[in-house]
Amino acid sequence: MTIKLTFLGGVGTVTGSKYLLESDDKRILIDCGLFQGFKQLRLRNWAPFPVPPSSIAEVLLTHAHLDHSGYLPLLVKSGFHGPIRCTEATQDLCTLLLPDSGHLQEKDADFANRHGFSKHRPALPLYTMDDAERSLRRFRPLAFRQSFGVPGKMQARFLYAGHILGAAMIELKKDDRTILFTGDLGRPNDIAMYDPERVERADYLVVESTYGDRKHDSINPQDALADAVGRTIAHGGTVVIPAFAVGRTQALLFHLAALKRAGRIADVPIYLDSPMAMDATDMFEAHKNDHRLQPAEVRSAFSIAQYVRTIEDSKELDRNTVPKVIISASGMATGGRVLHHLEAYAPDPRNLILFAGFQAGGTRGAAMISGATTIKMHGQYIPVRAKVENLQMLSAHADADEIIGWLRNFRAPPKMTFITHGEPAAADALRRQIGEELGWACTVPDYRDETMLT
Prior knowledge:
Elements: E1 3-9, E2 18-23, E3 26-30, H1 39-46, E4 56-60, H2 66-69, H3 72-77, E5 84-87, H4 88-115, H5 129-136, E6 139-142, E7 148-150, E8 154-160, E9 168-174, E10 177-181, E11 204-208, H6 221-234, E12 239-242, H7 248-261, E13 270-272, H8 275-286, H9 295-302, E14 306-307, H10 311-319, E15 325-328, H11 338-345, E16 352-355, H12 364-369, E17 374-377, E18 380-383, E19 387-390, H13 400-407, E20 416-420, H14 424-437, E21 442-443, E22 450-453
Parallel strand pairs: 3-4, 4-5, 5-6, 10-11, 11-20, 12-15, 12-16, 13-14, 13-15, 16-19, 20-21
Antiparallel strand pairs: 1-2, 1-22, 2-3, 7-8, 8-9, 9-10, 17-18
Helix pairs in contact: 4-5, 4-8, 6-7, 7-9, 10-11
């Protein structure tokens, strides 16, 4: 009996991850992410789902980031009524991320309606906070490596992927066939997360390629961070760091704490202006078996920042001219409180906008990294005169050589390797490298491509 795999997202882009498996007249969905970035991608979020959501028996979730989980509230709203399986930490993080996503969409729609800059009358959110809360009732968490049955006469388990707290690879078995989805593959020797688990065989492999066309800078991230912060503070400026609330923020706090203890950066205030990131930070203590940090390290690193909880306190940061470091979500500057900080600090050349990871095409982060002199926010264009830099070595994604290093654990090549979750140049570069160095059969699927796994 064949299994059909359809690529409904996460191809040709790093966002919108969705992979549909059909077996024995049952449908399961691997990941259910939002498309982000370019408008033509974001419009897919508003289009009818390619299959009736009610026909999907189950969703398996690799991790909590919105490009993998953020469509779930709309899927449930549109008729999906099955369980959502994930790891325990992923469930807990989704309780933060999904309602926050709905809240931000409601706020953006309200702001657009009040200021009249939307083409739609009225502007509506893709989904609401209540929709997100309803989707959370369908979550059914499982432990890493625990085998469980999946509709379509398959067995599945979650394996450590590194990347962020709770992130998993998904291994599916049916009869004598194994299908492995890497999700987002973390880096070896990460300061906080375990290395991606070694896998020795799979008949079919779906592997990410976010950094498939490059290597991370070998410079020590603390050296780079000390240099960037030091230069800016010396000129009387403020460092604004758009950072993903889950994963990147915690790594930044760890590095900044180490730099302060060593006296390598000035004793300026560090602010964490993201309520969701604060709660995500607390989860490192709640899930202490899912990462390599000791409890004392967690408490020491995460106490370095002053937590900014209220909107008024967040606004006060923009009125305060004292040099400082502000960490705020979102990591690609697509929404959240960081937009107001960019509006305040981007026009001043003394300041630094410091990104800390991959910036998807079509996002404000990508535009600023590419040298945009203005960015559009809340219906108006803001000049960008501040310095803009990106510390890519802080990324939680494996680079091309690290992916190849992980693939070398396989004792035999898969029948086919599908390269996903990358911009076209990155995915094709990884395809070539896998073919040339490993001799594996591999392909880069396109949106809505279908393939039979025999």
